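Example S7 (structure tokens).
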């Protein structure tokens, strides 16, 4: 598979990060609690219906496998450009269906999936529109695409600049999106926006031990309280726009 220099940089970056994703991030109690509720939030936004085939786009270490396979009772396919991330997934789950592929050129036939979940994939793509158009192509008519991406406002832009300087987890090419930017990107690709949500305000900076070990300053019971407060905050107009991630559910026409 031939890929561009920018994508090759992403592959190299995630080769360095793969082990820490699993051994540091996924083993951490703060992250596990935060992530379980994040996945739950995404699940609550999905229409209650049967999804026969689901694509986990940019699956990384396959953290959505149990939701898709067990809770949604759907056939799972995980796609990622990083072979190192996929290898972690294969170690976690036997007989899992994983495909090393470029999200901007999936090499999957049209109208294959009833649901596509993409958490933190679009901001990695050199051409986000291309990636969304590919998702549209491989989704069945009437199918759903739900994405969760870094949210952008003036305050968060400043904080992210500090994060980027302190951690080796990021690339200068990584993006963040305002609500209008991400919505327009999806609409331009053909989707209809159905619902917009947010995730992580107070708790987010303490949830990722592999990026910065800030969790050490917040005892787990206090952290859990912050996560529960966030569940309330993200429903309050204006204040919810201080969240670190925006979640958009959209539908193929």
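Recovered sequence:
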């Amino acid at each position: 598979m031939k890929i561009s220099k920018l994508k090759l940089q992403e592959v190299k970056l995630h080769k360095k990060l793969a082990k820490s994703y699993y051994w540091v991030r996924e083993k951490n109690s703060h992250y596990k609690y935060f992530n379980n509720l994040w996945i739950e939030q995404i699940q609550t936004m999905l229409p209650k219906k049967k999804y026969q085939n689901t694509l986990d786009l940019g699956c990384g270490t396959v953290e959505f496998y149990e939701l898709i396979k067990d809770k949604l009772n759907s056939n799972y396919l995980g796609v990622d450009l990083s072979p190192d991330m996929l290898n972690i997934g294969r170690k976690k789950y036997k007989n899992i269906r994983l495909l090393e592929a470029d999200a901007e050129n999936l090499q999957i036939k049209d109208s294959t999936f009833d649901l596509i979940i993409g958490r933190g994939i679009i901001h990695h793509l050199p051409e986000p529109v291309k990636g969304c158009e590919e998702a549209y192509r491989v989704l069945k008519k009437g199918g759903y695409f739900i994405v969760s991406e870094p949210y952008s406002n003036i305050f968060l832009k400043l904080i992210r600049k500090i994060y980027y300087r302190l951690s080796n987890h990021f690339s200068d090419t990584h993006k963040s999106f305002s609500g209008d930017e991400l919505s327009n990107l999806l609409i331009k690709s053909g989707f209809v926006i159905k619902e917009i949500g947010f995730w992580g305000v107070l708790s987010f900076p303490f949830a990722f031990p592999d990026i910065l070990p800030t969790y050490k300053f917040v005892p787990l019971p206090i952290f859990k309280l912050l996560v529960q407060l966030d569940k309330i905050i993200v429903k309050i107009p204006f204040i919810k726009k201080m969240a670190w991630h925006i979640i958009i559910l959209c539908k193929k026409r």
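Notes on this example. The chain has a mean pLDDT of 94.
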